[in-house]
Design brief:
heterotetramer, A: alpha/beta, Aspartate Aminotransferase, domain 2, four-stranded antiparallel β-sheet, 15 strands, B: alpha/beta, Aspartate Aminotransferase, domain 1, seven-stranded mixed β-sheet, 16 helices, 37% helix, 11% strand, Probable glycine dehydrogenase (decarboxylating) subunit 1 (chains A, C)
């Protein structure tokens, strides 16, 4: 009986205390005809040793080669200390910190996380995390609708936003009677400013601005922010948190008056690049920060600093009246859990990297992507699709359909060559989204170039 | 001793050098206008400072690995360490979510197997693993109910029925899906008030959200009757899997008549709570909801596994996460399921129920009042301190805080809302009898303390890093981020 | 500056407080001509990311196949919890528990370890560990010499003892003027009783008895113990701790009077099978237990239970007067460190396995070895060398020289086929020591058999 | 709260079932007479019980990861986590020590590189990594000295000289090797008394064991003169590497004239102390001792690495461990060395020395007495409480115990033996200035407390799991294993 501590003596004593004759008697309120028999499709148990061997084998099956796939999930170096500390039992197996006095570790850490995320995004307030980047965007849109409750229920989303984010956004807000308007991309791979200008003032609630966008291209965030504001809309930024170590934060976007711009209203994104391993897509975490004015519209948990009976500082969950366990059907969201363990990792990760460390990661990724793009475009028939530098990502066009090229790169050269854009963006032709982070060496880039040259030559 | 904020350990120019790329910033490729002017105010600390700070902070937490956590409705059981170790094998961690199928067969095999196991334990026809938490599983479930009615052209259904004892996520989810949540009262024995239910159903009923056993810690005995009433009215039944631990291998939601279920894998399948998440809220559906399941799902063609997506399920409610949900959590649940195996599933419910009924019997014998004294406990049960409140001003909060000094996490308090001064107690199957006995001793001792000196109990806790915190001040004088003195 | 927290401001302030002008000034007592320049053979630093990639690559180079090598180091399943807890900072980075009040965790754990080891070996007292099995044997011999201080200085060691233990024993006691007498093995692979009988009573200090011995064969421990005692010698047992879950413990060896035998005097061995990964040979730990009478002759640390100022129980290092930091040149040994971290792992490992779990591991290893031996001996020309069942290990003879067969098994079939005995025991011919533990499945055994059949057929 | 013994959590028949082979015992192959009659009295606990017990025990420890440890002579610096993670890669853990060379090239490459790095930082001609601890390194060193004299037929050398301030392992090792240890006094400034040394050397001198800087925290300035005296007498110089951290990249034992050195890799190369071990005591030798090095050593033939053994070094002092020493510790040291790199080595000594001299200056300014006030501190220094003992009865033990309440581990006390009421303080390079300042504040505060109320200080510690323990009782009423009440 794995994980069950009872001895036969214990069971006998306990049943006797209860006054029950057997285990079955404990279930005597369940209508007998409903009781199920043996679970035929659950295999018999394995010992830990046996399951370890099974899992080692399956893990080895998926041993990856040299990966140049990004598209929203990035391979970064994660300091060993991050997960060695994060998986300490006291973080790993702790519950939500509702009993604050017994959860000061988690609570202080979340307060530190909130502080780091507001610093990074240039906003006033942060919650303690959402599920992932795409769902955080959906919550941001719903938050904007609540804050801007004038009945328009229309959100403007550019085509340069990650296609999967657009799909998730649709699925999560579909039932709430909100219209999604898509803005096209221009020839430079950026949101078409003219299309936004053409929208009537007062006709939409908010504009979503990705920076850098799905193609790795920098949007003209100041113009977009100003335009949206001039039309009475709120602005939601979707950002890569690592990029914010070097890019002007959303809190300063727009032309504004004093130094920085007036800034956006809400910032969200996926925290994966801050210490979460790729891990097949999750668990990651979404982050959500906003201007002070919207704090009571925020979904999710928020930690505040207060004092105890002796006046000593301590931390506790606050503004819980927004949440489902208090407000039920009138809550800001149905969200209950967050991604606490990932936030633990991210907070340690950010402490170890610091602003300068994150900036170096951003810089190495930026320059590595530029270098790879240049190297691949030396191959006859390969060309860059957009002129601007790519941050983490860049789009190249191949002289042949992408799928078979990727398959050949993977099988013959151990290179996972990128994300095939042809399904989501057929207008770009045989387009491939490539990604380089600080984990790749010049030799890795050369290996990719040589492999691609070989594959293309063989197929030509 | 208090632990300063990491920001207070920071000094300009300090760094954990081994963790940074060696090359300095080179940002000429970024247009000047887009560059950040001043570095964000992040901590600048050495590696030892960070390690020591976060190790010390961890020691200011209770956790399963250190304390008994009889938290009703949360199923805080042992999280086997192998689940963590095996889910964190380097190859699993390094696998990109968009890696080609040729580099994904090992991972997909695990996910496919997990789907099959969850189908069997719930008695459902299909399972999608993608929801990232219980609340997202609920969302997916109600979205499928909505999609089902829509697909049939039935647009009149605007209400979701919810028992008054339900988790807050139930009505909140109904609202998110555009439904009105309508509460159904509970009778004196803790069952759904059947007459009230009959009165409430109608052509406006999209469905009902139930957990069984309910949050009152008792099994809803007339579940088949309820299913009949709702189904006859054209509504669907939603099973909130929060309490699945109570019935694993004993009775299956599918057999009770439910059309859709979410499972909290971080409860029943023992993935870590992690201080608040990540969860995993897999959904299971009956035959008629199969076309609407959220994508992606793992399919099998011969020996080859692949993702099923929009092309395979054109009526799907869509994607709920960027990729495929909390994959690493699902791997942990899979390892756990394989270590339990067929018989282990059944034993989970047996021993969880044994522990709850034993604790209930012992506390009753010590004079505590049960909310439903005539009922069998499921995996959890409710003690009400109404009498102690009246006689001694001893509240559920007081007990909760004082228990911390005795080395026990508090039970869930003030939930369900309809029982006054309520302690919802769930011991789980992984706790031993000696621990349960010590917990009873602690409750008895605190009650005795309250009789002697209620003020002392109200001053608790005394042995935690802080004493009772001022929540009102926290909300009124909002301090939710570090701002350096300027 | 990896791992150094000082900022430039810190350095300036600190030098100023010291009254030194520069770092160089801090070394002004070192004769300048001795100062070294740049370390030319130390490569420039790597970041953690870079060294991680290097080490992953090197680890992958050594990815092993299916291993049937034992010979003193055994592949056992180690529960995941063991090392997840052992590597917690509070165990991993703690110092020797000299400040007892701040080290109750380590001290209580060591007390529990001592209790487990005395239970397993059937002895009265245990120290808190030695370096490894071979060096523990050397310490045991020196301990016997101290306890039996009549000037004989002669130790009798059978040829069935692990050859590497014999080498280490020689190296470690060589300087102490102790003669080592080797007893031959008989045709059954056991210590030749007649040879022992032939030694004069009173002519040697102690007899070493390995059980099971290097060949996996069971020694006639009762007869050996009685014989040694009858000749006035002490007895030292060298045992595999896992085997003690099913074998009569050394504390009961010999004919004795009441139920069990009178028992040996000292027990030692390598603790590796109790939770230490193979890890290229270390760190493992040696264990050492003894009868109460010899406690003051024991080397190494010992933890005792006592009380504090309030009468509350607590743990502390005790009998420190035996040790080098107190007694200096008159200490029982020069040993200072022990293998605390491995003992931490072993204590958790033993708690998780329990007596029944260890017995099952022993049983599976015993039966697996028997099964493999039988299967391999189905191959023409392969034969078993000794009749008795092998515990963990068994000796088979091949029809061809062993080394090329092992090389072919490894390169062509991914099988590490065992330990070649021909160098250490030329008298056994083409002999191979094979090992099976609970980690091997029936399919693994068949794979080895098929591979060996193929290799032998190809060479024949 | 106290934590019971694991045996006290045990119940017959309880088990961590997932950890056992599924098949029950089948022991018919063992002769009846050899079988165990009664199972050993091991604990029978569930997995959660074991995990919770050992997690809770861990919280009753100080450690680098949680506390500052200014332990003189122990070099308790930060143990980088990457060293652990990378040494524990599955392939390294699974590699059998007797695996064929074809399956060992990755591991051997690391060991070869480490040998080369250690040769360079010590200035020696050869390095063997096999000794399992500092004391075994000492053993190997003295054994090589003995082998050297023997090989030359010089059998008259029966003495090893040892300064009176030396570590206890030095004279203990000399004894183990059959030598008489002869103490050499130290002069008032902490240097070796040269005249006494001259008087002591002779044809009976096998060698001298020195650490430099010495355990008195000062650099032996006349080291070349000492080397000359001993060498002229035909003796060899042994360098105890315990204090290597002080001079890394600044001055090399080989250049000072030493013939043999052991290194405590768990100090200078930051492998974990692990609550008492494992250590690693690599030895380095000058040209003339090369033939005597302990085996195995890693050699390189072209691109291929292999073990060098008896066949290659027939004069070797032999094998000191069953296989090749604490391989996993050596991997950690290797990772650390690569992360430090060439310049990092030098900085270790610089910042360790900076921290020690800063602490020394601050404590002197606060009125504490230094044992060697006229000297530069090396990586450590000595405060003597002789005056406080006389005036207030404040002892080194009192300070040590009270410091625990302030959140600091004690310095090394009562070593070296020749300084009364001595605190040997070594901050290491990985501690930041703020921590050092807090440590000074704590010492100042304790001294002030002692002036006010010495009894209170003598009652410390107050905040640990136990108060001051009765060591005398521990030794007199020996209780060193659990014996169940019968």
């Amino acid at each position: 009986m794995p994980f069950i501590p009872h001895t036969e003596t214990d069971v006998a004593q306990m049943l006797s205390t209860i006054g029950a004759s057997s285990f079955d008697a404990l279930f005597d309120e369940i209508p007998p005809e409903l009781r199920c028999g043996e679970l035929k499709h659950v295999p018999p148990r394995l010992t830990e040793m046996e399951v370890a061997r099974l899992m080692h084998g399956r893990a080895h099956q998926d041993r990856h080669g040299l990966s140049f796939i990004g598209a929203g999930a990035y391979e970064h170096h994660i300091p060993a200390a991050v997960w060695e500390i994060t998986t300490r039992g006291e973080y790993y197996s702790a519950y939500t910190p509702y009993q604050a006095e017994a959860s000061q570790g988690t609570l202080q850490l979340l307060y530190e996380y909130q502080s780091m995320m507001t610093a990074l995004t240039g906003m006033d307030v942060s919650n303690a995390s959402m599920y992932d980047g795409a769902s955080a965007l959906a919550e941001a849109v719903l938050m904007a609708e609540r804050a801007h409750a004038d009945g328009k229920r229309r959100v403007v989303v550019p085509r340069t936003l990650h296609p999967l984010y657009r799909k998730v956004l649709f699925a999560l807000i579909d039932a709430q009677n909100i219209e999604i308007v898509e803005l096209p991309a221009d020839a430079d791979g950026r949101t078409d400013i003219a299309a936004l200008s053409a929208l009537d003032a007062g006709s939409f609630t908010c504009l979503v601005i990705p920076q850098p966008n799905f193609f790795g291209v920098f949007e003209d965030v100041d113009t977009l922010t100003d335009l949206a504001r001039s039309k009475g809309a709120m602005v939601i930024a979707v950002v890569n948190p690592v990029s914010l170590a070097v890019l002007r934060p959303p809190g300063e976007w727009g032309s504004g008056t004093s130094g920085g711009g007036i800034g956006v209203d809400i910032v969200c994104g996926d925290g994966q690049p801050l210490g979460a391993p790729l891990s097949s897509g999750g668990p990651y975490f979404g982050f959500l920060t906003a201007r002070q004015a919207f704090v009571r519209q925020m979904p999710g948990r928020i930690v505040g600093r207060t004092v105890d009976l002796d006046g000593k500082p301590g931390f506790t969950l606050t503004l819980q009246a927004r949440e489902q366990h208090i407000r039920r059907s009138k809550a800001t969201s149905n969200i209950c859990t967050n991604q606490g363990l990932l936030v633990t990792a991210a907070t340690i990760h950010m402490s170890l990297l610091g602003a300068e460390g994150l900036a170096r990661v951003a810089s190495a990724s930026l320059n590595g992507t530029a270098e790879l793009t240049a190297m691949l475009c030396e191959i006859p028939g390969v060309e860059r699709v957009f002129a601007s530098p790519g941050f983490h990502e860049a789009v190249i066009r191949l002289p042949q359909p992408v799928a078979p090229v990727l398959a050949a790169l993977a099988s013959a050269h151990g290179v996972l060559g990128g994300f095939d854009l042809s399904a989501d963006y057929p207008e770009l032709g045989h387009a491939l989204l490539i990604c380089v982070t600080e984990t790749k060496t010049p030799a890795d880039l050369r290996h990719y170039r040589d492999a691609l040259a070989t594959v293309l030559a063989a197929a030509a | 001793m208090s632990e300063p904020l990491i920001f207070e350990r920071s000094s300009p120019g300090r760094a954990a050098h081994a963790q940074r790329p060696a090359a300095a910033q080179q940002l000429s490729a970024i247009p000047e206008s887009l560059r950040r002017k001043a570095a964000p105010a992040m901590p600048e600390v050495s590696e030892l400072q960070a390690v020591r700070h976060y190790t010390r902070l961890s020691k200011r937490n209770f956790s399963i690995d250190t304390h008994f956590y009889p938290l009703g409705s949360c199923t805080m059981k042992y999280n086997p360490r192998a689940c963590n170790t095996l889910a964190m094998l380097p190859e699993f961690l390094q696998r990109h979510p968009l890696a080609p199928m040729s580099h994904s067969q090992g991972f997909l095999a695990c996910m496919y197997d997990l789907q099959e196991i969850l189908k069997d334990v719930t008695g459902m026809a299909g399972v999608s693993l993608t929801p990232m938490a219980g609340a997202q599983g609920e969302f997916a479930g109600v979205a499928m109910i909505r999609a089902y009615h829509r697909a049939r052209g039935d647009s009149a259904r605007t209400e979701i029925l919810v028992p008054d004892a339900a988790h807050g996520t139930n009505p909140a989810t109904a609202t998110m899906m555009g439904y009105t949540a309508r509460e159904i009262p509970t009778d004196a024995e803790g069952d759904v008030d059947i007459e009230a239910l009959r009165a409430a159903v109608g052509p406006q009923t999209a469905g009902i959200m139930l957990t069984n056993p309910s949050t009152l810690g008792v099994f809803e005995r007339r579940i088949k009757q309820i299913a009949g009433i709702v189904h006859d009215a054209g509504g669907l039944l939603y099973y909130d899997g929060a309490n699945l631990n109570a019935i694993l291998g004993q009775v299956r939601p599918g057999d009770m008549g439910f059309d859709v279920i979410h499972m909290n894998l971080h409860k029943t399948f023992s993935t870590p709570h992690g201080g608040g998440g990540p969860g995993a809220g897999a959904v299971g559906v009956s035959q008629r909801l199969l076309p609407f399941m959220p994508i992606p799902i793992v399919g099998k063609d011969g020996d080859h596994f692949r993702w099923l997506d929009e092309a395979d399920l054109p009526q799907s409610i869509g994607r709920l996460s960027t990729f495929m949900g909390n994959a690493g959590v699902l791997l942990r649940a899979y390892v756990y399921a394989r270590m339990l195996g067929r018989d282990g599933m059944r034993r989970v419910a047996e021993y969880a129920t044994l522990n709850a009924n034993y604790l209930q019997a012992r506390l009753r014998a010590q004079g505590f009042d049960l909310a439903f004294p005539g009922r069998r406990a499921s995996h959890e049960f409710i003690v009400t301190l109404k009498r102690q409140k009246q006689q001694l001003d001893l509240t559920a909060t007081d007990i909760a805080k004082r228990l911390l000094d005795y080395g026990f996490h508090a039970p869930t308090v003030y939930f369900p809302l309809l029982v006054p001064e309520c302690l919802l107690i769930e011991p789980t199957e992984t706790e031993d009898k000696a621990t349960l006995d010590l917990f009873v001793d602690a409750l008895v001792a605190i009650w005795a303390e309250a009789k002697r000196d209620i003020a002392y109990v109200k001053g608790a806790p005394y042995t935690m890093p802080v004493r009772r915190l001022d929540d009102v001040r926290a909300a009124r004088q909002l301090d939710i981020r570090y701002q350096p003195a300027r």
